[in-house]
Amino acid sequence: MLGYVAIGLPCGILCSSIGLNGIQVLLLSYLFYSGAGQFMLPNMYLAGGPLASIIASISFVNTRQMLYAASFAPYCEKASKLLSFFFAATVTDESFGVSIKEFEAGRWSVDRALFVNLFSQSSWAWANFAGVLIGNAIGVPLAIASFAMTSIFICLMVTQRLSAENVVAMVAAMVGVFVCKLVGLTGPAILIGAVVGVVAALVFSRVAPKPQGPLPERTTVVKAGEGQ
């Protein structure tokens, strides 16, 4: 929740720069709830992007939610359809990282994961609201506010376990996003980069040699009566 305050404030500042008021931003945060999408909206608007381009780009970026839902599907088999729906509808990048770890450890449930999502969403929404008030009261450089979303992804990246597969995924994803933007595919760049990173890590884990475990200890069997 504290992490959402850190990125919600600058997002609210950006939203106020395009004329959205506090109530509009609060409703947007509760009904839309896409950190990346809410950052993209004012940035692309300020850059003069047409409405169709803004909608298409945000839609492409949010398609990664399908990957999250697919990852959680096995853990939702025993939960009700309604509970699973609200859980899937409120998952974000940060809450995904928390819940997938707890699910894999076997100490999590769908209702607990939903509470994490809802508390995070409330923190995000009210931080955005506060950001609008701050943006209207004081002048904050928009370039600094725009970098907030990038910084949270950097934090998520550097806190990952430094395995060979993770390093391959990170590098491949960066290269994928860079190449997409280089050829003009700005909208789906994040989605394509994420898929490239995942595929590269899966291929690497299949072809890379597996480390050998410790050899079993040698045991000596001595028959009764043979020596001391």
Keywords:
mainly alpha, 72% helix, globular
Structural features, described:
By secondary structure, the protein is mainly alpha-helical. It is built from eleven helices and no strands. The chain has helices at 2-17, 22-31, 35-46, 51-62, 64-72, 81-89, 93-105, 110-137, 142-158, 164-182, 189-207. Helix 1 runs antiparallel to helix 9 and helix 10 (164-182) runs antiparallel to helix 11 (189-207). The chain is globular. The protein starts with a helix and ends in a 21-residue tail after the last helix.
Shape: globular
Largest β sheet strand count, sense and barrel closure: none
Poorly predicted runs are: none
Helix content: over 70%
* Rg value: 23 Å
What is the N-to-C order of secondary-structure elements (H for helix, E for strand)? Answer: HHHHHHHHHHH
How many DSSP E strands?
0
Strand content: under 5%
Quickly give the structural class. mainly alpha
Distance between the termini: 68 Å
List the helices and strands and how they pair.
Layout: H1 2-17, H2 22-31, H3 35-46, H4 51-62, H5 64-72, H6 81-89, H7 93-105, H8 110-137, H9 142-158, H10 164-182, H11 189-207
Helix pairs in contact: 1-3, 1-8, 1-9, 2-8, 3-4, 6-8, 10-11
Put the structure in a nutshell.
The chain is mostly helical and about 230 residues long. It has helices at about 1-15, 20-30, 35-45, 50-60, 65-70, 80-90, 95-105, 110-135, 140-160, 165-180, 190-205.
